[in-house]
Design brief:
The protein has 205 residues and is α+β, with helices and mostly antiparallel strands. The chain folds into 2 domains: 43 residues, no CATH class; 147 residues, GTP Cyclohydrolase I, domain 2 (2-Layer Sandwich). Helix content is 41%, strand content 24%. The strands form 2 sheets. A 5-stranded mixed sheet has the order 5-2-3-6-7, sandwiched between helices. Strands 1-4 form a two-stranded antiparallel ribbon. Helix 3 packs across helix 5 and helix 4 runs antiparallel to helix 5.
Length: 205
């Protein structure tokens, strides 16, 4: 077992998939190597790819609870954080980039209170993206986590997934190729279009 993952069951499942696919086009030696070793390799790979499924909301809450005193009143911006995930409908890769804007907590006089460690946002993105997911849910989970778990609570959070490529759309079915899809989620002050424009101005630098 690895967290909630059962390596034995994953191996067994891939063994059945390989048997279903068949190997008539392979020589006996190669077929034996694939049947004997590929299920184990695939199980290890998927356990790593979906490591986020081993982490609970309390893990994310604890991750974001640490803060540092800081009086800044400006927007903290992250641009083009790369992510890799898997569509839950076909287990096909989904990859793209994420922009994040956070306005830290302010006191009653409009002064900054605290800020979080810069590495925390990429780690949160990794937790939620390393799961079977949909881009809509991924954007929502990241925005909710940053808005609800950063302590002290920020004034606002804005998350934009962009240039998201879905293999389930490009390599099968419609086989539609585009520059990618986008998804946005706003919380707090970023519900105001003028504040979202501030974020876009920073991302354009």
């Amino acid at each position: 077992m690895n967290g909630n993952m059962n390596k034995h069951l994953i191996e067994k499942g891939f063994q059945q998939v390989l048997e279903g696919i068949g190997f008539e086009n392979l020589d006996a030696e190669t077929r034996e190597e694939v049947i004997s070793n590929t299920p184990s390799r695939m199980a290890k790979a998927w356990i790593e790819w979906l490591d986020g499924m081993n982490h609970t909301e309390s893990f994310v809450d604890e991750l974001l609870s640490k803060s540092f005193p800081e009086t800044s009143i400006g927007i903290l911006s992250y641009k083009d954080i790369e992510f890799h995930s898997f569509c839950e409908h076909h287990l096909a890769p989904m990859r793209g980039k994420i922009n994040v804007a956070i306005l830290p907590a302010l006191d009653e006089e409009g002064r900054g209170i605290a800020t979080h460690g810069l590495s925390k946002v990429p780690r949160v993105i990794k937790v939620y993206s390393q799961r079977l997911s949909l881009q809509e849910r991924l954007a929502r989970q990241i925005a909710d986590a940053l808005f609800n778990y950063i302590d002290p609570k920020p004034e606002g959070v804005y998350v934009v997934l962009h240039h998201v490529n879905h293999d389930c759309m490009t390599s099968r079915g419609a086989k539609a190729h585009a520059d990618g899809t986008c998804q946005a989620e706003a919380r707090g002050v970023f519900l105001d279009p003028s504040r979202r424009n501030e974020a876009y101005q920073m991302w354009s630098l």
